[in-house]
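Now for one record.
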Amino acid sequence: MNDNAAFPHLLAPLDLGFTSLANRTLMGSMHTGLEEEKGGFDKLAAFYEARAKGGVGLIVTGGISPNLRGRLAPLGCELSKFWHVGKHKKITSAVHKYPTKICLQLLHAGRYSYHPFSVSASKVKSPINPFTPKAMSVRQIKGTIKDFAHSAKLAQRAGYDGVEIMGSEGYLINQFSCVKVNKRTDEWGGSIENRMRLAIETIRAVRASAGDDFIIIFRLSMLDLVDGGNSWQDVVTMAKAVEAAGATLINTGIGWHEARVPTISTSVPRAAFTWITERMKKEVSVPLITTNRINTPEVAEKILSSGQADMVSMARPFLADENFVAKAAANKSDEINTCIGCNQACLDHVFKQQRASCLVNPAACYETELTFEKANTKKKIAVVGAGPAGLAFSVYAAQRGHSVEIFDRGSEIGGQFNYAKQIPGKEEFFETLRYFNKQIELLGITLHLNQQQSAEQLAAAGFDEIVLATGIVPRALDIKGIDHEKVKSYIQVLRDKEPVGKSVAIIGAGGIGFDVAEFLVEEESLTTNPEKWLQNWGVDKNYQENGGLSGKTVQEAPSREIYLLQRKSTKVGAGLGKTTGWIHRATLQKNGVKMLAGVTYDEVNDDGLVISVDGEQQTLKVDHIIICAGQESERSLYNQLEAQGINAHLIGGANVAAELDAKRAIRQAAELAAKI
């Protein structure tokens, strides 16, 4: 056992026989978009090197296809030719400066390939892809197995310590293993022994190609969470065969991409799926990796010390903080920049073919472009506003050696984050504020709370630079009767905790409108109650049905009657995050929230809110009307400074008052801090 007092199980080495891992942390696979960018492999090398330097035990790269048809997109990355090896050597040589091991993930997308040459077990189209795959011939199947083995050999030549064969999340191997997609009647379909044949023969071929001293991780879908998924007995049968075929480690896969159960968003309880890995530990002896929504060393240590798994996979937490392991080892977990599971800069970007990054760490995947070297000249800087933009700027500027003072009229740091953290499912926002508070303390930043600054005060204090992160004010609406006592702003509801009646109309269905609706309908947060959360989303821990779905979700009587209204005629919630918007819509639908688009607001009166939809007027008889209809930049202080001829920098909502956008605000703050 490792003698590290803080996290002895997490930091203990893992003996794999022919090699060992420095600790039990796996940086899980994430596609970053750098794989396809010009010069992207140099940037990828810097990205992975930073995590290796930070102490992670094992890294798995983003998914790389073994052949053309398996690519995720037309220009997606593949490792199939000898001339591909050179660029991968940049990554492995950078990582191997440290004791970290690195595996290449081999991923054939199957029917998830976003191009017209996609193939699968059968001609069954995915609901999340416009392209229908062709059913693979036996010759194509055998060719694909050879391609996996060839790619593994090339990965070995490139210096990788092993490969992860992607057999979960609804990609090709998972498509073969489940009757949902596999409708074949030959030796590759029918019984589980036939359906898993592609996985098992692929592992055998990779082992034969790369030899015994090569890590093979198999990512096994232990919980498909789709109709037509495997039974628990099928999963166990496959796991035993995977072990026998020569896998070194089995990684836990949870859910297909098309599953209608959230698996990694911030509303998912921490470590919500470790129970399935624990159950599998009774069936196989190969070391098991558990995964999904594990974002602190304390959670990881508990999983390992209780014997639920042998290793813990964390992907996005290593985007958020490359020094996660080093900080844990130094017993400084309170200094970790915690992943909040928001998906906004990572998965949402990747699904839009943009480079991934991180909302709380905009330097992620920009290690060679967004850097914070020590400043040549130390400046005295005033930052007005302690929301996400002001806090991020202050921390980065102080890290560069500047003297920073923060002023905020509130009694605590956080700005709009203080509203967000109260929303059920957004409790992780507390972690970001804890991180900033700790950094303010460590960096010696002077914090002035409950202080409203004037232009005269700032001008007289002799600052070299003034940065205004004064945020936003809610936009005033021009509706007849808008001053009625029934009308409240979202700030009155979330900040001032003013009572709200049993029937409510919310004007504005952007992110804030959805947040307020969830705040009003969810009497308790299921994020802190894993058992109830699983029941609520129809996940059956007893695994009575195939795929692990119970077939029924909990439908509780709504605590309030809520109307969520928008002027636009587009689908309500269309502007929400690409990978999380459906979760918010589903949550509100379960709670009986009525969503109306194309609404004209006619009048507020004693009866409620008078609206027109498609030219028909109706009165929503509600107790309260809550305004969530956009924001305007708070620039009064900027205008005062400008009038005095004093130049100030505007960042965050004070600069652009779009939907509250912490991702843009923090990136803008970081970019200014890097050059000021």
